[in-house]
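Hi all, posting the design record for the shared folder.

TITLE: backbone redesign
STEP: 1 of 1
STRUCTURE INPUT:
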């Protein structure tokens, strides 16, 4: 452990997912495949949505493009460092690097939570008020909602960094995780962290729980409306809601479990962390495209367009 003259810790040691070389090598190739799938899948959605003027007319695909961009960036915060650590004996991260991970992880994570809430509102308007859908969800409102999501994520992440940066670190510097996050870091502080952990719960924990409950309530209203009012088009709307609920569960259940439980940690926390930092960004493109005819049609058009351009250039 390196310390400055004032005994402050200047770097942290990440214990990672395993200490066995054979298992680490297996995990390296496994998560490398996951990371390639994340990058290619989410990049494909972003390019498809931006390239297809028909999709951009629909707010759902406008929001989906932003969601895929967030997932693409979110995976880059933790996965490349984790892959590098699988091949190196010393899993070291500097204190500024640790703060940067916390900032971007919470910035992108909170933005995604807010965006999913906006997407639930979009589905509510589309299903419960279809005649006024395009009027209500106009281009200006769409931009304002997405901008508000990014601003909310920024405010949340700055709060997390402020909580950590003021803490003194002078003792142990081993983090039982594969990346830096607030719950593990504040436990290493050389002071009573009761107030800080309560603030963490009131910030990250309650944010996750409130957004989760709002989303569940929104989709409950949507499902009740579908059952009582509409008969035609039910299957498509139910399919869309089911895919959204799957994404919501994969993101919010691990976050609520980790951030709404102060003063204690469990080894299973690392497994839950994998879900919202690796698994969810990888599954989102599959969930949103495999059962979506519009996205599949747009992807086919995009592939034909690029094949034709390649043939012309040759």
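Okay, here is what came back for every position:
SEQUENCE:
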């Amino acid at each position: 452990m390196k310390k400055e003259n004032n005994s402050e810790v200047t770097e942290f040691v990440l214990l990672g997912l395993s200490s066995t070389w054979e298992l680490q090598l297996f995990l390296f190739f496994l998560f490398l495949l996951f990371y390639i799938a994340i990058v290619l899948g989410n990049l494909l959605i972003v390019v498809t949505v931006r390239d297809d003027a028909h999709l951009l007319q629909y707010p759902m695909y406008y929001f989906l493009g932003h969601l895929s961009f967030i997932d693409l960036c979110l995976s880059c915060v933790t996965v490349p460092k984790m892959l590098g650590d699988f091949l190196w004996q010393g899993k070291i991260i500097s204190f500024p690097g640790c703060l940067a991970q916390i900032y971007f992880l919470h910035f992108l994570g909170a933005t995604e939570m807010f965006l999913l809430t906006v997407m639930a509102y979009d589905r509510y308007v589309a299903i419960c008020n279809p005649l006024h859908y395009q009027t209500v969800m106009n281009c200006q409102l769409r931009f304002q909602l997405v901008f508000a999501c990014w601003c909310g994520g920024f405010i949340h992440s700055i709060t997390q960094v402020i909580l950590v940066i003021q803490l003194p670190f002078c003792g142990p510097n081993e983090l039982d995780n594969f990346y830096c996050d607030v719950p593990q870091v504040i436990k290493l502080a050389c002071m009573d962290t009761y107030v800080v952990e309560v603030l963490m719960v009131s910030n990250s924990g309650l944010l996750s729980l409130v957004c989760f409950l709002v989303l569940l309530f929104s989709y409950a209203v949507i499902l009740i409306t579908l059952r009582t009012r509409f008969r035609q088009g039910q299957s498509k709307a139910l399919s869309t809601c089911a895919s959204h609920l799957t994404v919501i569960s994969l993101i919010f259940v691990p976050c609520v479990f980790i951030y709404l439980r102060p003063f204690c940690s469990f080894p299973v926390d690392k497994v839950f962390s994998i879900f919202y930092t690796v698994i969810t960004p990888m599954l989102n493109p599959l969930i949103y495209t495999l059962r979506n005819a519009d996205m599949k049609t747009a992807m086919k058009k995009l592939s034909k367009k690029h094949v034709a351009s390649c043939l012309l250039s040759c």
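COMMENT: Strands lie at 11-14, 92-94, 174-175.
Let me know if anyone wants the other runs.
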